[in-house]
């Protein structure tokens, strides 16, 4: 048990170390930070002063350690394009992305489970087949086309929902402007939320469906039926419960993907989150923002994977028996 | 059917020469053998695959012959007539009377021509990035599987780390880094190659893992031991003996990878970090067309989107079919 946890945490740290190294190389060796921060008129003395101040003449390992140290304190340097601290930019935009990601994940989970259970119970039903076919098309469509299609139908033709932006926000804390508390904010969350969550929804739906089909064949379900339990009790109380372990794992793992794919959704809907910040940073080669985003997303991914793995370990006892044999 | 390569013996040189002389016969043999194969049999029996294959062929042909069949060169300002701007599809322009099959954009650019030219870029980037990813992935997978040891650990560790992140994110990151390394004035010209590099580098892992797995199995087999016994070096064994035997799944991964690469290219271009406006791909056309959706010119975005959709879906279906045919376990 302990060996497994130590090994798994060690792996996570190694991955993070690599990501940090990549981010550092981008930060340090791409372009010339001095040129980028100083204007054309800077003198040699200005240059040297800045090199001294940024510590660019220190040995590279020292610079790397300092980079990691700064990053741990949330300090990523100054954006070349906007001239403001990257940490400030990210703090401003992170709430928007997190809200979008959470709503999408919730949408994916709720509807994925509902549709999955339904298509699992009514395997040959007309409606179930329609849902399955539509989901297949949904998976094949690139995310941005889904977004555009939704905008066309619900914003342009029907005019029901806004097509871009976040609507009105309410400040919850100093840095957290939320859309969850206003009507226009919630309305503007619907289309991006669906766009972002659709792929994950189909994934969860198919998973729940196949798990349901498997579970419904087992003896204990037959006994439950024979005992005369109500259908709802059988489907939701007994069958669904036993499909949830893989569902929770997949949802957890997909949370990282949702944050990454938010880049596309945020661009389609001009949602002012970190994804949009990153796309603009790539276009304008704004290196500190790129490096910071990389570190941020890397940390999120590694943390989620770690938590899911440890959870799995806690939930599934079979893994615990294997662990000593494979130790270290 | 009777003459397959396996039966050729040491005096095969003579037969080889004969075959060269009687080339039509040799071609006919190949054709007959193909028409008799499992692959063709399965192809014939799957209408969906036939439709998908025809659509892909149609689009590839359209891309190859694009400059010949397009009514205008959409990127030559001299051929554009501003008066023709915003002509709806399937109808004549109300001022000039010019007819454009799929309508025009704000500058009077024929959408049909723009799609043909965009298709060229999309397919070019897609195909070349998959080739790049394939060559890189197969090489690394072969080396990893055959040599083992620290080099295997290193390559597979990198693959694992890369697999932790979605490939589109990796592609964007590499695109950003490569873009930063290219001088500002060359960025537009180099964009397509940067795009190929970033998509290729984001997709090699699938090839490498599959080939490595197959190599691990093959290298223990007797023919490899025999080759080693007669004193063949590692590289010749890998290239001439192991490689042909691990290539089967590569074709499947390549086809599905092509669909992924086309979508990745379109996504990057749509985000504005892909093909530049001077050489727009389908994704760039969709990005541009999005602005006109709100003012009611739906055809500017609809037709490029449909083309992309049909292309990606058909290639995907072909890949699925290939996987089912070439994987004996599923039959």
From TrEMBL, chain A:
GO cellular component labels: plasma membrane
- Identify one Pfam family in the record: BPD_transp_1
Listed transmembrane segments: 12-30, 100-118, 130-155, 189-208, 244-263, 269-285, 292-315
Q: Which compartments is it annotated to reside in?
A: Cell membrane
Report if keyword Protease is assigned.
Answer: no
Question: Where does the ABC transmembrane type-1 domain start and stop, copy by copy?
Answer: 94-312
Gene Ontology biological-process entries: transmembrane transport
Q: Which UniProt keywords apply?
A: Cell membrane, Membrane, Transmembrane, Transmembrane helix, Transport
Q: State the coiled-coil residue ranges.
A: none
Superkingdom as given in the UniProt entry: Bacteria
Q: How does it sit in the membrane?
A: Multi-pass membrane protein
Q: Which PANTHER family match?
A: ABC TRANSPORTER PERMEASE PROTEIN, DIPEPTIDE TRANSPORT SYSTEM PERMEASE PROTEIN DPPB-RELATED
**Entry's family note:** Belongs to the binding-protein-dependent transport system permease family.
Record-given protein name: ABC transporter permease
Protein source organism = Marivibrio halodurans
Source species taxonomy: Bacteria, Pseudomonadati, Pseudomonadota, Alphaproteobacteria, Rhodospirillales
Automatic annotation (TrEMBL), chain B:
Which keywords belong to this entry? Cell membrane, Membrane, Transmembrane, Transmembrane helix, Transport
Membrane topology field: Multi-pass membrane protein
Q: List the signal peptide residues.
A: none
Task: Identify the SUPFAM superfamilies for this entry.
Answer: MetI-like
Q: Which CDD domains match?
A: TM_PBP2
Domain of life the protein comes from: Bacteria
Alphabetical list of PROSITE patterns matching this protein = ABC_TM1
Location relative to the cell: Cell membrane
GO biological process per UniProt? transmembrane transport
Matching InterPro entries, A to Z?
BP-dependent_transpt_permease, MetI-like, MetI-like_sf, OppC_N
Q: Which residues form the ABC transmembrane type-1 domain?
A: 119-319
Q: Transmembrane stretches, by residue range?
A: 50-70, 121-147, 159-178, 242-264, 298-322
Would the keyword Electron transport turn up in this protein's UniProt record?
no
Q: Which cellular component, as a GO term, is one annotated location? A: plasma membrane
What PANTHER family does UniProt report for this protein, alphabetically?
ABC TRANSPORTER PERMEASE PROTEIN (PTHR43386:SF26), OLIGOPEPTIDE TRANSPORT SYSTEM PERMEASE PROTEIN APPC (PTHR43386)
What family classification does the UniProt entry report for this protein?
Belongs to the binding-protein-dependent transport system permease family.
The name this protein goes by in its record: ABC transporter permease
- Which classification does the entry list for the species? Bacteria, Pseudomonadati, Pseudomonadota, Alphaproteobacteria, Rhodospirillales
């Amino acid at each position: 048990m302990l060996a497994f946890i130590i090994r798994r945490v060690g792996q996570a740290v190694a991955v993070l170390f690599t990501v940090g190294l990549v981010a550092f190389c981008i930060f340090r060796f791409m372009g010339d930070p001095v040129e980028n921060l100083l204007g054309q008129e800077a003198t040699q003395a200005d240059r040297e002063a800045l090199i001294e101040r940024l510590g660019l003449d220190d040995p590279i390992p020292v610079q790397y350690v300092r980079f990691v140290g700064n990053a741990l304190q949330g300090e990523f340097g100054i954006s070349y394009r906007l001239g403001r601290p990257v940490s400030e930019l990210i703090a401003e935009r992170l709430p928007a992305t997190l809200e979008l990601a959470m709503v999408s994940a919730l949408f994916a989970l709720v509807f994925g489970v509902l549709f999955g259970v339904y298509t699992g119970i009514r395997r040959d039903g007309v409606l179930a087949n329609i849902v399955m076919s539509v989901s297949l098309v949904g998976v094949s469509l690139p995310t941005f086309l889904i977004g555009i299609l939704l905008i066309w139908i619900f914003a342009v033709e029907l005019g029901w929902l806004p097509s871009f932006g976040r609507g009105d926000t309410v400040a919850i804390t100093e840095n957290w402007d939320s859309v969850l508390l206003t009507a226009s904010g919630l309305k503007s969350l619907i289309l991006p939320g669906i766009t972002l969550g659709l792929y994950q929804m189909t994934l969860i739906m198919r998973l729940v469906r196949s798990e349901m089909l498997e579970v419904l064949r087992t003896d204990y379900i037959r006994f439950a039926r024979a005992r005369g339990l109500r259908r709802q009790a059988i489907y939701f109380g007994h069958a669904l419960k036993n499909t949830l372990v893989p569902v929770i794992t997949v949802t957890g793992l997909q949370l990282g993907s949702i944050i990454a794919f938010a880049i596309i959704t945020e661009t389609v809907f001009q949602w002012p989150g970190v994804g949009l910040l990153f796309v603009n940073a790539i276009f304008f080669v704004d290196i500190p923002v790129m490096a910071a985003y990389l570190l941020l997303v890397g940390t999120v991914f590694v943390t989620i994977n770690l938590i899911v793995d440890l959870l799995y370990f806690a939930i599934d006892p079979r893994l615990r028996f294997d662990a000593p044999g494979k130790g270290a | 059917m009777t003459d397959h390569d396996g039966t050729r013996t040491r005096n095969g040189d003579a037969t080889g020469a004969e075959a060269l002389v009687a080339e039509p016969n040799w071609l006919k043999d190949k054709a007959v053998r193909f028409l008799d194969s499992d692959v063709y049999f399965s192809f014939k029996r799957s209408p969906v695959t036939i439709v998908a294959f025809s659509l892909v062929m149609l689009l590839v042909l359209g891309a190859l012959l694009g400059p010949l069949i397009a009514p205008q060169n959409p990127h030559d300002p001299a051929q554009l007539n501003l008066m023709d701007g915003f002509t709806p599809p399937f109808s004549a322009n109300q001022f000039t009377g010019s007819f454009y099959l799929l309508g025009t954009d704000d500058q009077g650019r024929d959408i049909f021509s723009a799609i043909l030219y965009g298709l060229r870029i999309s397919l070019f980037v897609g195909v070349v990035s998959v080739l790049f990813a394939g060559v890189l992935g197969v090489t690394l997978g072969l080396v990893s599987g055959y040599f083992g040891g620290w080099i295997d650990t290193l390559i597979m560790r990198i693959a694992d780390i890369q697999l932790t992140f979605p490939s589109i994110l990796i592609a964007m990151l590499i695109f950003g880094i490569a873009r930063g390394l290219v001088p500002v004035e060359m960025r537009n010209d180099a964009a397509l190659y940067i795009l190929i590099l970033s998509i290729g580098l984001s997709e090699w892992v699938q090839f490498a893992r599959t080939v490595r797995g197959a190599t691990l199995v093959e290298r223990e087999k007797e023919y490899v031991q025999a080759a080693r016994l007669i004193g063949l070096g590692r590289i010749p064994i890998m290239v001439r003996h192991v490689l042909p035997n691990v290539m089967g799944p590569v074709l499947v991964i390549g086809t599905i990878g092509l669909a992924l690469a086309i979508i990745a290219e379109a996504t990057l271009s749509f985000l504005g970090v892909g093909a530049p406006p001077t050489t727009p791909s389908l994704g760039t056309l969709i990005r541009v067309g999005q602005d006109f959706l709100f003012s009611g010119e739906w055809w500017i975005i609809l037709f490029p989107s449909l083309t992309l959709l049909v292309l990606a879906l058909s290639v995907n279906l072909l890949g699925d079919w290939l996987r089912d045919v070439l994987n004996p376990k599923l039959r």
